[in-house]
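New to this. Comment on this protein:
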Amino acid sequence: MPDYGIFVGESVHHPTFSMEWRVDDYAKLIIAFSGKGSLCLEDGILPIESNVVCAVPPGKRHRLADDTTKPLSIYLICIDLDRFVFKELTVKALNKLHLRPAQAWQIFSDDILKQMLYEQTARREGYREIILGLSSILLVRLLREISTESQTLCSSERVKAYAGLMSQRFFSRQSLDEAAHSCGLSRRRFSQLFKEVTGSSWNDRLIELRIGHACCLLETMNSSIQSVAFECGFDDLSHFYRTFQSRVGATPTRYRERSFEE
């Protein structure tokens, strides 16, 4: 473990992989990218498959057991929780943590894991502080996301939970296929359920949230139009202008002028 208390590593298991029971004095987040298996704890067994996130609190006896026909490939984030002021709350939350793909997407959707890996490898000035900051964000997201009732949702409930969280994550990059995958559904089935839950298509709902936030920023902030577009999830300024005018009936600049006139 590095002196700053965070380590991110990859573990690609061979079909003959076998792990003995062990206890660590740091917390572990286990992010599965492929394969199948189980996280065995003294008080239960949690199934692991692609895009599932599990955790082991510090001091808890555990082992990984792979499906020999589909051995796991995982990333581990090892965290010394003594570095964080909310240690006790986090330890309690990590106990039996088991996030399905829809929940895991909400936490890792902005490539936070890739950012941590990059900083750990590049070791540029200030990398320790950046990794600690990203770890804090990650842990807070876990604390917000964990809900016993939401860990065994049916398809429609998963889509409903996803739709509800879109209002907090509409600015993130994600395609329809990625959204469907995060809920463990096909594109067609996800689109059907999303329309039933929200009354609109996934793309229409995403644009509605982005443009709605843009209107709020234009009415209340003095940020540049480019900054407004960026904050709302539009990477292309001309696309933002076209979409905004199509939805609102005025350019962002004119909309701001009218809101000030009123």
